[in-house]
Amino acid sequence: PAPRTVLLTGAAGGVGALLRDRLPAYGYALRLFDIVPVPGDPDAIAADLLDNTALRAAVRGVDAVVHLAGISQEAPFADLLTSNIEGTYRLYEAARAEGVQRIVLASSNHAVGFTPRPAAPGVAVATTTPLRPDTLYGLSKCFGENLASLYADKYGIETVSLRIGSCCPRPRTVRMLATWLSPADCARLVHAALTAEEIHHAVVYGISANTRAWWDLSAGAALGYTPRDDAEIFAEQLIAELGEPLPDDPERTHIGGSFLTAEP
Ligand code: NAI
Ligand code: 15L
Question: Any idea where the NAD-dependent epimerase/dehydratase domain is (predicted)?
């Protein structure tokens, strides 16, 4: 049966906000969790992922978890170690203890960010491309994907790892014309990841049907994800405003763009 009650961690964040607005229409009852209060929702659980008691109670009785909580950009290692590495480990341990079968994990394109962008149009980067983080942040996402693999093999917990591109109301950079994940497509993707059958550990790229995409979307299609939006509608105006990045700019040369030169 399709999961009904879903724990949304990181519910106060940008992606959390757009999923809070959209997932109930798919029939889910959401339980919200974040270290900071969720605006407009007094029932949300305000706790750290490292608070075991709160986390176990949050996970208890849900059908699935959508795990967004964590640091979402480059940061000092000590902070990533706590929120992203230990926090994700604690989440999986809580899920194992409480018998939760399915986790949708927010990974990131930055797990493979140092991969060169395909030079030829129409050549796509596969989900099986070697992990190649561009930041300590990306490395923390590699840990999450490997943890998901371990918990699938060892304990049978199913994970769909979403290597999200750029999830925001509209693309803000020329690179995002390739990496954009529209809010509506994000909800479609999470719904597909929650309901797909015969999952072990699946890795998919989370972007819209962008004309300039450089990722292979077949893994997402196999889960039933059909994106409907395309960043191309913003292209003319965005390029007129910002201009194209220079040919040797990481925004042009590598998947991870400006994260290649980001320092903690
Ligand atoms: P965000 O930074 O807006 O939200 C993250 C939320 O996690 C925040 O509300 C924060 O309070 C919470 N959080 C952080 N540490 C926590 C802890 N120790 N315990 C409990 N809650 C904690 O990030 P956004 O943009 O909403 O992203 C959500 C997830 O998706 C993140 O894991 C991010 O790495 C990932 N992602 C997002 C992308 C995007 O384009 N927005 C792209 C790729 C990945
Ligand atoms: C990410 O992983 C970040 O969380 C988000 O803020 C964006 O910068 C995104 O990647 C991106 O690559 O555009």
Answer: 6-165
